[in-house]
Amino acid sequence: MAFNLTGAGSGEFHYLAEIFLSGTTLRYADEDLSLVVSGGATGYFYAGKLPAGGVLVRDLGTFLEAKEAITNLDLTVDNSDGAQSTIINTYVLANKEVRVFLGEGEYRSGYSEVYRGNIARPNGVRWDDDAATYTVIDKRIKDRRYLPLTTFSVTGAYPNVEARYKNTKVPIVFGNWSSAAGTSAELAKGLTVPAVMSSTLTRTFTVAAHGLKGIDRILKNSVVLNPGQWINKNLTAATFRITGVAYDATTDIMSVNCQGIATIGGSLIEKPGRVLRSLYTTFLGLTSGDLDLTAISDVDTASGNEVVRRFIDTEISSETLCAELLNESNTDLRFVRGKYSPKYRSMDLAAGTVQIYEDDLIARSEVPERAEFSVERDPDRFYANRIRSQWRYDPINGVYNVGAQGSTPAYMVNDIAKQSEHGSVVERLLDFDWYYDDTLTKARVQRELSIFTKETLNIRLGLTRRAMGINPADQVRLNYDVFSNRAVQIRRVENNFDDMTTRLSGFNLFMLGMGRWANDTDPSWSMASLDQRAAQGFWCDATGWASSAADPTSYLASRWY
């Protein structure tokens, strides 16, 4: 398709900045704006003091290492009238919150937050006669912590802790470590988590830094104790005592089968979205107002019966913990409208998805006319036709547990046809730190193989103002070049505040090649649209075809999870 330059401009899109100081809020825009708030009774005036806006980049990273990049923003404010000099020398600006919005129209509700951060300290403020520049650090940097937070300190709450555990971390336990955890016969005995003698005076052991839903077995050196050999089990404090049992503080290991942290209502926290919420609110100090609770609920609905668990007793960055949880659960975490907003990575069939057409593209060159559009096959070299994997980490022995196949790694899958086509074996090893159930994790491995035996298509687009409101992990429908109504998941957004254009980079979602169980009302393969073929499962014959072998697009079309 030839590109025809339309001359589409940026229209009346604006960007706003709000700086929250003690006792006052500074409001600026790219031009003088009076915006009406809800109801129309009052409004805000935004002084046109934002000259060169620059580019705001939001990047989710790759599918293999999916985490939104932390971006600093230099906010430049006009100082030709000296107002910023006065403000800087009157107020404390260090660490003050800044919010940036994009939108259009005369109503404040027509603008969405795209960035939130805090003015850096040190070196966060500089000015001259022309402009003041505030370096704004992404809010999420302040939210990071190293977990676990609590230490078995003899100068704190544990003066009589066992000598070998002094100054070690009090663990965090997520999910189901009970004796019946899992679904296969191999899992019947469960894996245990260690317990530390936190008081040598009372022979009290502590399992976690928080309350537990339950403890169903207590073991010494992997041998189950009788109920009469332990007393005073306290789920709120995650403690118990032993009595009438010999214990060597240098060699013996106490452990438990338990269920980890629970909600206030007593439900075990084990769904991926609910675990993410608990990490942020229980351990990082955020509130529910910092989270998109609807998005978190949607993730748990989309992930079906998938559950996770983890035993955390050595310091690890909360960013790493969350990234591993998200990657394993096939989820991306955006920061949208000032809130953490996870999104499950699957085909979105919503009717309101933005359609991208030729006249939405901006020109890369005008003579000759060329669109800012390009496609690249597998730029990150995701391709693999064999995946080895291991899971069910054993915290007592410090290794991944031997799998049902009797060896480590626990599971390996091959695409023989792709290995033959490629002429070699291209292998990837996946370690699952959160997933543990045999059936669910094997399905996750098979899903990875179905995705990465294809060469992903990375699509880059330069677009007019219509794309300014698109967020990372959103999906658009591309209608240009060889693509017709093609679903593209956005991985990178570059908003240019100077000319109000947007550059997007995303992946062709048809590469996922995996579906969900079809509903009774869903069309058959021959009657289904391309989107429906990519989004739902189909019954296949013994050779893996959803239609006749003459239709190559139906090969291995049924991918259920």
Secondary structure elements and pairings:
Layout lengths: L12 E9 L2 E6 L3 E4 L6 E6 L6 E5 L13 E6 L4 H8 L6 E8 L6 E9 L5 E3 L3 E8 H5 L2 E2 L24 E3 L1 E2 L15 E7 L4 E3 L7 E7 L2 E2 L5 E5 L4 E4 L11 E6 L12 H12 L9 H10 L7 E3 L3 E2 H11 L2 E6 L2 E6 L9 E3 L6 E3 L4 E2 L1 E5 L8 E5 L2 E2 L4 E2 L10 E4 L1 H7 L4 E5 L6 H15 L4 E7 L11 E6 L2 E14 L4 E8 L21 H6 L26
Parallel strand pairs: 2-4, 25-35, 29-33
Antiparallel strand pairs: 1-2, 1-7, 3-4, 5-36, 6-10, 7-8, 8-10, 9-10, 11-22, 12-21, 13-20, 14-15, 14-20, 15-19, 16-17, 16-20, 18-19, 23-24, 26-27, 28-34, 29-32, 30-31, 34-37, 35-36, 36-37
Structure notes:
The protein is built from eight helices and 37 strands. By secondary structure, the chain is mostly beta strands. The chain is 13% helix and 34% strand. 39% of the residues are buried. Strands 1, 2, 3, 4, 6, 7, 8, 9 and 10 form a nine-stranded mixed sheet that branches. Strands 13, 14, 15, 16, 17, 18, 19 and 20 form an eight-stranded antiparallel sheet that branches. It is flat.
